[in-house]
Amino acid sequence: MARYSINNRMAGSQQALAATLKSQVSLTAVTATLCRGQIVELAYGADGAPNATDCQIVYDAARQTTVGTGTSATPNLENPADVASRSLGTVNYTVEPTVTGGTAFVGSIWSRTLNQRAAQQWFANPGSELVWPATNVNGIVIRALSPTYTSNVLVDVKYDDF
Amino acid sequence: MRKPGGYSIIVEPDKADLEEDTFTCGHCCKVVFVKPLCDPAEMGGRCTCCDKLICKYCVGKGCDPLEKKLLRWEAAGRLREAMRSE
Questions:
Q1: What burial class does residue A48 get, using C-beta atoms within 10 Å of its C-beta: 0-12 exposed, 13-18 middle, 19+ buried?
Q2: Among A36, A117, A123, whose Cβ lies nearest the Cβ of B6?
Q3: What is the ipTM of this complex?
Q4: Does the predicted model carry a pTM greater than 0.90?
């Protein structure tokens, strides 16, 4: 099983947050190289100067079922001896993808509110990863919103293809 | 938590780091953050059928493990692709 990492500084332009969820990084299966994948590590935090008014940033992960419009990013290999990732990494969405549960947090598999100055890291132990199916354009998207902080966030994801 | 499914740390200036154990629901894949000394019933429970820890939203809804869901989604995807290619 090969491990890869991707973040939303790797390609395209980071999209400033707004009061509605903005997709930052997504990982999806593609028909040509169909395989399952699993997120094993998530790290995120603000990537801009904090707002003068103390405020929150809400981070969310949800299951994606259609592709929106974003910039394709080639994931980095954790081990250079591995083959290139078979999953598609898309970052900095300008048109939101369709997610299970719609735009609300109904289908969210991860949601966390942090202070704008805070950052979080999460590591999954074996057997507790966030798995997506080997179905075309299905995957997991990491999104964020803030009604007050209107700059960028950095989301870094480590994942396995299998 | 004994045998946690994951570990989370939140760092924030002028505050102590917040470390939490997590587990991933065996039915819906939702990540649950375990508060120290919290009532196990608040977090969800253990499915008596598949023996996995589950979140509170999946308690009492029957056993539908994630692996079975993945297989269903993949079968539906294959069907969609087959219909599209005809």
A1: middle
A2: A123
A3: 0.91
A4: yes
